[in-house]
Amino acid sequence: MEMKRDYYEDIRLLDSGAQWFWFLFLLAVLTALPFMFGSYEIYTINLIAINIIVALGLNVLVGYTGQISLGHAGFFAIGAYGTLALMKIGLPFVAALPCGGLLAALFGFLLGLPALRLEGPYLAIATLGFGLTITQILGRIDWLGGHMGLQAPELNIFGWVVNTDAERYAIIMPITVISAIALRNLTRTKIGRAFVSIRDSEIAAECIGVNITYFKTLSFAVSAFFTGIAGGLMAFILGFISPNTFNLMVSVMFLAMIVVGGLGSILGSVMGAILITYLGQELEKISELPMVGPLLLELSEKYLSVNGLPNVQFVVFGLIMVLIVIFEPLGLYGLWIRTKIYWRTWPF
Questions:
Q1: What are φ and ψ of residue 162, in 5° steps?
Q2: For residue 121, is the peptide bond before it cis, meaning its omega torsion is within 30 degrees of 0?
Q3: Cα–Cα 20 to 30 A to 43, which of 72, 112, 191, 214?
Q4: Residue 347: is the preceding peptide bond cis (ω within 30°)?
Q5: Is the Cα dihedral 290, 292, 293, 299 positive or negative?
Q6: How do residues 104-126 score in pLDDT, each as one tens digit?
């Protein structure tokens, strides 16, 4: 292993020519995607990119700091409603989006304060209550559309009117890449090391001078900020939002992404978001599958209900999480590491 001689080598983006090659290759592929696929496929990729931002932010809280959260749908909603509300009063999108993220970060900081005395299932219940409360409050604000929801305004960026999925992709994907790079570097700084020390042992972290109160609340704020940014982007993907858009299952899906992908891993967050989002999109069309679709429909009509058939995706997500926990606790990232080690030592 090459010895590092400078602290800044640890936060440098790429260390070798090979890494630069694959990074530039990835950027080239991401640039070419809108020209290779149709509107529906680009829409799905946009959803994946937004969920990657959420998974990255949630992994900072759960994977790196060790704090559980079942309320990130609340931050998602705050970012979405905050961005649209600020644009409604005349703020441009380029300013409303980060402000919506900062608003979510403020609520994340406030939630982090009572969470200082909670951990495990108690913290999960507290964050769950926060997520459910936020949607109820938003549904009672008439200026934000109440239970009827809020229509997203025209997306105009310095005179460029964004209408198509490909144009939205040109906005969303750069933000996703920048978010991944920013959080990757954050986890390698003093702040990231403080997060990890809290996760491993709060007592040991406090003994070496880590301010537990500051870094726990900071972790909530950082996680909520990126989730709020993703929520603001999602509002323009959907074109219309309502409190029902941000239900409990959204928070469960976010948590499933990082558990399946791998806790405490940037690459794992990306892999988990890709898998769960793609499966979610495909399983919504499960009734259209030949042979399998009619069989499931018949079983649902006989033993359950037809309305429950679209929710089979959550059954699949639950099954995947159980299998991951049993056979590969490190998630998809663990499989990736094992594959790399195998090929490095092949054929021995």
A1: -95, 115
A2: no
A3: 72
A4: yes
A5: positive
A6: 999 999 888 887 887 778 888 88
